[in-house]
Write a structure and sequence with these properties.
The protein folds into three domains: 7-105 and 181-477, TIM Barrel (Alpha-Beta Barrel); 110-166, Alpha-Beta Complex (Oligo-1,6-glucosidase, domain 2); 495-570, Immunoglobulin-like, CATH 2.60.40. 28% of the residues lie in helices and 18% in strands. It contains 16 helices and 24 strands. The radius of gyration is 24 Å and the shape is globular. The two termini are 25 Å apart. It binds 6-O-alpha-D-glucopyranosyl-D-fructose (ISL). Residues 61, 64, 101, 149, 169, 205-206, 262, 264-265, 289, 337-338 line the site of 6-O-alpha-D-glucopyranosyl-D-fructose.
């Protein structure tokens, strides 16, 4: 039978430091701000805080460009503040997980500054350098045609050495060379530095990109009109990935630390299990991207794709049943700092539906098998940026570069409108607006105009108005975490059964542990949904939770109201 390590019972609250709480009136969130909100986090009922990068950084990519792994970004605070944060969390029985960004560093990191200064630098091989390719007319070309996640080539030319360096993300984020044992040792030292300081684990950024195909072959030309092509198959889940993960996993086990890897482009559970199977001693769990990629068109990230509820069911069923049967573990999420707000994207943020829709998604996500990740503001039902916000409101280099490239390539007004609408739905900026604490100026996030505008709806949608309201989205999330604790056998360790694979309005699943059974019913529709409870579930029982709050028993034929969610414990 499966083991019961502590982290299987742990749920996570993700904090984006720039947008959580500003304590010193500079318009940017900071660590003392986080410390001032620890009771709020504790009361929600989570066990772990995952803090996005707070290290020293020039902030080209919001801290995912680290210039010193052992120091803190000055606007966020100091190492002493981190120590206070760790203490404050531990006093409340909470743990701290930090973001480990080691696919790349900042170009302002000492290693890179030295590496680019001379081919003889002892740090040269910390990064990936290649000679130019010479084109048909003798012109200098990048070593291959790979497209960067943030647009343009993944190669940046260095005049002085006549070589290019690799950067899968921005040119200010040079990729580390994991083939170099010294790089591996440096990363291990960084991990120990933080674990020794009292940190309880890591979220490993873009970690399945660290092992590259050393031939660096050209990518197939999928888009003939584009200069650069998607080379992901040559650097995702590469040949030495597991070896590198075991190297880090060994240290994590030494400290009984938590680990979750971010692994986009990983859709085969037979491969993922090689990372999360306990006996392999790599990572506890990974973020797979199938749900958040569901509405992305093959044409490009910010082109829309219509999805059906049956697709979502297939994805959920696949991961839930596979991990249960193979003793793996899922990381459950609908939001993070790279995604649009879930209520707007997967349900509805129309005023008449928003609260029910947010609670329905909490039910859908929060009662599955796995560790639940809630992103700051999700517990309040925070929504996407309004349509009235134009492109000039965007701050993220990813969305800006995507849009600018389209404009520069002469895209039609029609295409631009499609992309703008899709950015409004999915772009990363949606998740980065300031937390809405109360109805005072700047939503109580700051005393001055914040680095990014506060959403227009903060007077109605904020923490103060929800914390003591038993019918709020926040209180509902708290009930979800209460349920997971009170019925741990079922919700943490129980099996998962998809109840209806075909209905396009209603998603229902059963959790079961020995004789105990719970039926979860969620409607993803803004219309009434007529649904027949399958025979074997029509029996007496008790309603554990319902988002409309007025359901008393389970009938055979039910008419679910818009975005209704009901949780039954069956006798
Ligand atoms: O690999 C992907 C898809 O297959 C990407 O989605 C990738 O996983 C993702 O873009 C990585 O995001 C993370 O690293 C970035 C940073 O900008 C994001 O905020 C972070 O979450 C670079 O560090």
């Amino acid at each position: 039978s499966a083991k019961r390590p502590w982290w299987k019972e742990a749920n996570v609250y993700q904090i984006y430091p720039a947008s959580f709480k500003d304590s010193n009136g500079d318009g940017v969130g900071d660590i003392p701000g986080i410390i001032s909100k620890l009771d709020y986090i504790k009361d929600l009922g989570v066990d772990i805080v995952w803090l996005c990068p707070c290290y020293k950084s020039p902030q080209v990519d919001m801290g995912y460009d680290i210039s010193d792994y052992r120091d803190i970004y000055e606007k966020y605070g100091t190492l002493d503040d981190i120590d206070d944060l760790i203490r404050g969390l531990h006093e409340r029985g909470l743990k701290l997980v930090m973001d480990l960004v080691v696919n790349h560093t900042s170009d302002q990191h000492e290693w890179f500054k030295s590496a680019i200064s001379s081919k003889d630098s002892p740090y040269r091989d910390y990064y990936v350098w290649k000679k130019p390719k010479i084109g048909p007319n003798g012109e200098r070309l990048p070593p291959n045609n790979w497209l960067s996640y943030f647009r343009g080539s993944v190669w940046e030319y260095d005049e002085a050495s006549d070589e290019y360096y690799l950067h899968l993300f921005a040119k200010e984020q040079p990729d580390l060379n994991w083939e170099n044992p010294k790089v591996q040792a440096e990363v291990h030292d960084v991990i120990r530095f933080w674990l020794d300081r009292g940190v309880d684990g890591f979220r490993l950024d873009a970690i399945n990109l660290i092992s590259k195909d050393l031939d660096f072959p050209d990518a197939a030309v999928a888009n003939p009109s584009a200069k650069y092509q998607d080379g992901a198959i040559y650097y995702t889940n590469g040949p030495r990935l597991h070896e590198h993960l075991r190297g880090m996993g060994k240290i994590f086990r030494e400290y009984d630390a938590f680990s979750v890897g971010e692994m986009g482009g990983f859709t085969d559970p037979n491969e993922v299990i090689k990372v999360v199977a306990e006996e392999r001693e790599e990572l506890n769990m990974i973020f797979q991207f199938e749900i958040v990629d569901m509405d992305i068109s093959p044409v490009g990230r910010y082109f829309p794709r219509k999805w059906k509820l049956s697709e979502l069911k297939r994805i959920v069923n696949k991961w839930e049943t596979y991990m249960y049967e193979h003793h793996g573990w899922n990381a459950l999420y609908l939001e993070n700092h790279d995604q649009g707000r879930s209520v707007s994207r997967f349900a509805s943020d129309k005023p008449e539906f928003r609260a029910h829709a947010a609670k329905m998604l909490a039910t859908f996500l929060g009662l599955q098998s796995g560790s639940v990740f809630v992103y700051e503001g999700q517990e309040l039902g925070m929504a996407n940026m309004p349509k009235s916000w134009g492109i000039d409101k965007l701050k993220d280099l990813e969305s800006i570069n995507f849009y600018t490239e389209l404009v520069e390539s002469g895209a039609s007004e029609e295409v631009l409108q499609v992309v703008l609408a899709d950015l409004q739905k999915k772009c990363r900026d949606n998740a980065r607006t300031p937390m809405q604490w109360d109805s005072t100026a700047f939503a109580g996030f700051s005393t001055v105009q914040p680095w990014m505008d506060v959403m227009d709806d903060y007077k109605e949608w904020n923490a103060v108005s929800q914390v003591d309201d038993p019918s709020s989205v926040y209180s509902y999330w708290r009930s979800i975490f209460d349920l997971r604790r009170a019925h741990k056998d079922i919700f943490v360790y129980g099996s998962f059964n998809l109840v209806d694979a075909v209905d396009e309005q209603v998603l229902s699943y059963e959790r079961r542990y020995e004789g105990k059974r719970v039926l979860v019913i969620t409607s993803f529709s803004e219309l009434e949904a007529l649904w027949t409870v399958p025979e074997e579930y029509v029996r007496s029982g008790k309603v554990l939770l319902s988002n409309y709050g007025d359901v008393e028993n389970l009938k055979k034929d039910i008419a679910l109201r818009p975005f209704e969610a009901i949780v039954y414990l069956l006798d």
